[in-house]
Amino acid sequence: MDRPLELGGRYLSVLDPLWILRQADLDQASPELAEVAAARVLLRELAQGSDRDHVSHALALGHGPARFVQGEPAALLAPCVGAEVHAPTRSGLRRNHAHELLAPVREPKRGLAGSRDLVRERHIANDSLGPVMAFALPVEVPAHVDRPALVAPAPREISFGQVAGTVGRGTDTVAVLVNGRPAAQARVQGRRFSLHVKLPAADAQVRVVARDALGNRAVTAIGPVFGLSRRAAGASGRPHADGALARRIDALVDDFPGISAVYVQDLRTGAGAAWNATARFPAASTVKLAIAVEVLRRLKERPSPTSDLDRLLELMLVHSDNAAANELLRWLGGSDEGGAGLVNETLGALGLGDSHLYGGFLTGADGAPIPLRTEDQPSFEGKYTTAHDLAELHRFVHLAAGGGGPLIEGVSGSFTPDDARFLLWILAHSADRGKLDRYVSKVAVVPHKAGWVSDARHDAGLVYWRGGVFVVAVMTYTGGGAGDSSDELAGRVAQAALERFRQRAGADEAPAA
Questions:
Q1: Whole-model pTM?
Q2: Which is nearest to 464 in space by CA: 478, 481, 444, 482?
Q3: What confidence tier does 158 reach under pLDDT thresholds 50, 70, 90?
Q4: Are 263 and 473 in contact (CB under 8 A)?
Q5: Which of 79, 87, 174, 265 is 20 to 30 A from 318, alpha carbon to alpha carbon?
């Protein structure tokens, strides 16, 4: 809606939105024209309006000759100038605020062919046509637009859909594109912006475009970002037992040919169920998540994507590499035992006293509380943990991703929300499939860490679905060797929990993000 003219090294914005506002002949300006308050409102709205690309050449019916701006050209340093407004127009402005008059794009077209028709209709309804005015407004326009600085999201992290940051002076709008497709747009008030967009449940590229009033633009692009449901963000509910889910889990563990343990909790409502959840099982690789937490807790900033530490973390969590886990333990404490001791100290500080590492790895309530009991447990030596401790550790990582929980508030070190979102991003890329995700992978995202030895097979993680998120841990032990029946049990437990939590939420579908 503005056509900039260069005048004395400055930009002069001459606004003529409907062809009834004509560019003034500045050298013929009359000093006796009175300044009218309604004109000042219209000037400001025209200069800041959101609709400058749509009605700049819309022809108004019955337009008349224009008047001239007040003052000499040298006086254009003022923030705005006075103008004469024809009496019917002034009356119309009283009935219809200038912003309402000239912002048709925010209103339904009501079957009209386009924005020009809507402008005509408004003018006819206003009965305010006739000789109106002409005015000029100096606009300070920067030579370029600064690239937006993003606070969230960040590359190689999960995201619940928030896109936030700061922009430079003069930025008028911010637009967000996801994988090249428009996702959101908003006017900028001040220097900060925050929008929510829907991200796919997969790695995506996010582009943030800043524009000024003249169409100058600057872009910041980041990725990959892994999208999770916005409804999954936030603190967990108070744990309490869900009888229907407990009965379903009891039936599943009764059919398992060995010793098992289960813990499930909806992190939004707190509803859950458990079986044998405090029994100690061989930990296997499930406690590698605790090693990763300890490494990030001791770093001042996240390792770069090309660093050895980053490579080792990915190998340990995505591919469950034992050699990588041992290297990280030695990095932590100088030896396998020294590193394990530091991890144990942190587990104790988090209240996870039923988990313990011995050295390295072999290479090559709204109602009754969720019952935490030991019904049966295997006999073994070495690292151990419980279904409840594994579930709690994953819950703590989820809470930390939102800026709260014991990992942020309860232990020393520098573990940050960025670290938690980075860990969840890695776990979402786990190469070990067919366990907790066995029957829910089409409708949910399952960041998880599995582990197994000859007689034991476990999986623990978070299940993010459209309605929220729940944590689940399933541990099994069979004297004759653990195998596919353990994975089947994990998959059935996660499926039963999702069905129950969907039922409680009244959801009729559950896409992943």
A1: 0.71
A2: 444
A3: very high
A4: yes
A5: 265
